[in-house]
From TrEMBL:
Source organism (scientific name): Periconia macrospinosa
A Pfam family the protein falls into: D-ser_dehydrat
MF annotations from Gene Ontology: D-serine ammonia-lyase activity
Protein name according to UniProt: D-serine dehydratase-like domain-containing protein
All residue ranges annotated as the D-serine dehydratase-like domain in the record: 301-423
InterPro entries the record matches: D-amino_acid_metab_enzyme (IPR051466), D-ser_dehydrat-like_dom (IPR026956), D-ser_dehydrat-like_sf (IPR042208), PLP-binding_barrel (IPR029066)
Example of a GO biological process term: D-serine catabolic process
Amino acid sequence: MPTSHFPLSPEPDLQQSLIGHSLTSPSIPVPSLILDRSKARRNCDAMLDVCRKLNVGFRAHVKSHKTLQLAKMQVGGAAEEKTGGWPANFIVSTVLEAEQLIGYVRECHSIGRPASILYGVPPAPSVLPRLFSLANNVAPCTINILLDNLSSFNHVLTALSSLPDTVSPRPTIGIFIKIDTGYHRAGIHPSSAAFEPLIDQILGAEVGKKGVVLQGLYSHYGHSYAGSSVEEAADGLIAELEGLLSAGSVVQSRIMALYPDYKRLILTVGATPTATVAQTLLFAESADNTTIPALSTSSISLSLLAEITSVYPPDTPGRFNTKPERLISAGSMALGREPCKAYPGWGIALPALGNESNQIYDFGAEEGKREGWIVGKVSQEHGVLVYEGGGGYGGLEVGERVLIWPNHACVAGAGFGWYVVVDEDVEGGGKVVDVWARWRGW
């Protein structure tokens, strides 16, 4: 299915309509997804800085933001485009994301910059033709896939052999074996009786020049999101590495029978907690820690703009509310419905716009000492802000606007066609400086 079936929001029209307006302007629709460009850039730069210091590669996941602008920023932006030094390696969760990125990957290749795309889930057989069409006339292993079973691999070989004779040169697809390091969503465990046969079949197809190359091993430690501390995230990172090293030793033993020389394997790890913990630990250990900013809420670049539509003081007759409440123009379709273990809500109101006079809810404080507005209830298109804590509060009257941190950025973004972009380094972030269209579809 071509990308034309999933048209992007018209950036030029949106830019003309929105740039220069304040977030309090009626010209900015509510709800809107607000992205702080300078914060996002600093986060991307910090991650790359950590990877350079650790001398490891980095593969940028685009599933959360789904934009070309942020994808470029993740791999170094304009500076790396000029030098071609840092590879532009990406991971995607949908074929459409790969289709939107392939043009940029080709641009990178044209200036001698390494670039590739990894489809980050074991692929359904029906999507293989779309994926493999992206591999035409690009370097070998520009397009990579994950596999964890022999049946899927056989579908890959069938799809490659079924390509028309007019496809020349024939594409070469990179294979990463998905290793289950405890999340149990997908992947194969090294102890499985099916593991060695899978390795042997992939290596045999590589030696037989059937259009595949074993690139390495991949782990996603998704259950690290259940952790509550840096220490738990660090334990998760170590467990990921140990799991891949264990699997790697098995793979190398199989390789020895087929390759007279050493074959380099790429070990890929990292969920958000286990990837960012490297940044936190390096910050803690660095003698010059001013160069690596510690992670904090001040680093959060995404928020949701909503408007107050009704006010309910405590003990509103018939409502039975013991706390102040505000109805807002954003519900589960904008915020998502995923809870957060750190606090009893679906979002936290920032001390900005109509909420400027109030403190931010500190989910890290002790129970009983947390105070501020949170999204305490959600319906489909509306939510309810609830004021937690016994202190005084002000503002947030009908018509005033509020910025909210959603619990899960990936889910919150799904309902929006574009980002309203601000920049705290430009007039304090109070005015729109750009609009970036989000990719839509699968």
